[in-house]
Amino acid sequence: MFVREEIEEKKKRIRLLLEELGFDAVYLKKQSNFSWLSGGGLNVVGITLELGVAGLLITPGETFAICNNIESPRMEREEKLEERGFEIHSFPWYEDRRGS
Fold first, then answer.
1. Do 37 and 28 form a contact (C-beta atoms < 8 A)?
2. pTM for this one?
3. DSSP 8-state code for residue 21
4. Which CATH number fits domain 4-91: 3.40.350.10, 3.20.20.370, 1.10.340.30, 2.60.120.1130?
5. Which end of the chain is more exposed for a tag (fewer CB within 10 A), N or C?
6. By the 8 A CB rule, do 54 and 34 touch?
7. Which of 18, 19, 43 is nearest to 32 (CA)?
């Protein structure tokens, strides 16, 4: 169970930091960061990995979940990222967009 208000507050804090530092965006793919921002979501397939299969991109005006087209249905169905306020964008699984 996630708390939408908690996620929105974290997005707000990130956006304030982006403005303060003069950055255009931040991309979070490390499991602990993903879980923190998404209110407990999991972006990993194997629990021993530090980087997950999906990342969260925060800009001053938008929030996205980015993952390959194989993982995007799972991110929507199991992690409920759209309900958590993240627009899911996917790319073909064979393209190298790991973001590591």
1. yes
2. 0.89
3. H
4. 3.40.350.10
5. N
6. yes
7. 43
